[in-house]
Specification:
Elements: E1 2-5, H1 11-20, E2 22-25, E3 28-31, H2 35-48, E4 55-60, E5 67-72, E6 78-82, E7 85-89
Antiparallel strand pairs: 1-3, 1-4, 2-3, 4-5, 6-7
Length: 95
């Protein structure tokens, strides 16, 4: 499984993504691609998307914890690794 969340994609990349993915909301793509195809899609995204695209990619893997998180550019969320576990940090507003 592959989930791609973007701030903004180039029109050509977005059109190509719609071939393999369901787009339930603008710039959120979900697909049940096999591992080899998922790797090729990730390579394509890193090659043709500028950092302004703000990509956050969640990919299913066979080892614990069962997923891998990749990012490109400003994703509006921070990614951290804690004891080998990748996590997405929610930004907290100070009151």
């Amino acid at each position: 499984m592959l989930i791609v969340i973007a701030n903004d994609l180039p029109p050509a990349v977005r059109g190509r993504m719609k071939l393999w993915f369901v787009e339930p909301r603008p710039n959120i793509f979900i697909s049940g691609l096999k591992d080899n195809t998922a790797r090729k899609v990730i390579e394509y995204l890193f090659q043709y998307c500028p950092p302004e695209s703000g990509l956050m990619i969640f990919r299913k893997i066979s080892k614990a914890p069962g997923y891998e998180i990749l990012g490109l550019g400003d994703t509006r969320r921070d990614l951290i690794e804690l004891s080998g576990l990748q996590l997405v940090v929610e930004k907290v507003l100070a009151i």
